[in-house]
Amino acid sequence: MEKSSEGWKLLTVGLIVTGVILTLVFTLQVGLPNWWAWFIVFPGIMGWSLAYQWYQKEGYTPRVGGTFALGLPVVLTGLIFVLNLDWGRVWPLYILMAGAMALLSPYTLLKGQASKTQQFKAVK
């Protein structure tokens, strides 16, 4: 099976599992508050899965870091809704996340690669 089909396989399994869980929740009338928030979390996890596949194939590149960083706010926001957390208490996590995203951003990675190249040229 090709690498590109792995993402579709994960998406398909995720949709089936989500459908089964929602069917059980609504037919058994089990309390699952904010069930809809999982539809916010899943795209972020899919992005992380894609970043991991790229990481295995290419190593740590700006594309890997950028894709992983973009999943951070999506997953964090979804989990805040899923867990029904108080926004007034968890907002500092967004500041931490912004710092992590700055470290993982493609611009930061490319800038670091450029400085390494310049240092290498200086040594020659």
Automatic annotation (TrEMBL):
Keywords: Membrane, Transmembrane, Transmembrane helix. The keyword Membrane applies. The chain crosses the membrane at residues 7-29, 35-55, 67-85, 91-110. This is DUF5668 domain-containing protein. It comes from Deinococcus roseus.
